[in-house]
Amino acid sequence: MTTLPERAGRRCHNVLNPLHSAAYFAPDLAKELAPYGIEDPSAVYLAGRAAAMGAVGPGAVTASFYNFNHTLVARFVPEVWDFASPETVLAARLRSVDVTLRRLLGEETVAGSEVREAAELALEAARGCTRPGRPLYAAHADLPVPDDPHLALWHAATLLREHRGDAHVAVLQHASLDPLEALVSHTASGRGMAPKWVLSTRGYNEQDWTAAQDRLRDRGLLDAGGELTEDGLALRKRLEDDTDELDRGPYELLGADGVARLTDLATGFTKSALENGAFPADLFGKG
Question: Which segments of the chain have a pLDDT < 50?
Answer without folding.
Answer: none
